[in-house]
Fold this sequence. Notes:
- The chain is of the alpha/beta class.
- It is built from eleven helices and nine strands.
- Helix 6 links the parallel strand 5 and strand 6.
Amino acid sequence: MKPVQHFLQFRDLDAQQYSYLFERAARIKAYFKNYEMYHPLVDRTLAMIFEKQSTRTRLSFEAGMHQLGGAAIYLNTRDTQLGRGEPVEDAAQVISRMVDIVMIRTFEQDIIERFAAHSRVPVINGLTNEYHPCQIMADIFTYIERHGSIQGKTVAWVGDSNNMCNTWLQAAVVLDFNVHVSTPPGYEVEPERAGLYDTTHYEQFDDPMEACRDAHLVTTDVWTSMGFEAENEERKRDFQDWQVDADMMRVARSDALFMHCLPAHRGEEVTAEVIDGPQSVVWDEAENRLHVQKALMEYLLLGEQH
Ligand code: CP
Ligand code: NVA
């Protein structure tokens, strides 16, 4: 039997597969924009398991599956036996006998890895403490729509070395671009946690302004991610100087884009002037979650379509 292809971290797919998926996402987006019905996944069911909150991820997966002709079921920790301690391995056995594909948003990466190891069907990472690969797929697709290939370009990451940062770093290796990272002291990238075997595609900067200099894309994320709320006050103090503002955008290239996966805190990690300004593409990023994930689900279930 062919091994099941999961999408648990960015490097689970290679550059050729991403190239296919980005082209496919553009096609699927065009069908959607033109109200052309496209139902390759009739009778297929997606289970979505949420152990953390979500707006965009739930909506884009649920709407996406519906638009492809299938159905989606929302499960969360509170209302399922997962919240009462049923082993994740048992849940995986059961859930994957009843549906065709699973998306999970959870805490440690180890949880989704264990689920996938016991699943008969493809499992997609909808965010873990370590990674957020669907978001980075959408972000790179958004970059390509605006400026073409990201290969050889420079992405400036300002802020926490969190799930988004780790995934940008993996993507840089797979798709051959560079990341300039600036984190406050004590919050530096941990290559092992980021799943990085190749550290040649990123550079650490003490000064966030220097990280942004000549960048093609400037991006950031919340100072406190879900699951780390107890550190909120300390982080607010530590991250004061890691706010993306107009000065940082000014030292980047004049055509640089600003990205943020959302939800955002204006006045913390980014100023309102930047996120609501002309270089910001945050609404396209959010919308593109829908299109890239439809391409991804189609690919994991049916393979390449021509
Ligand atoms: N960007 C993102 O994943 O948003 P949600 O937390 O709303 O799903
Ligand atoms: N880094 C953030 C992303 C939210 C979509 C978090 O994990 O909370």
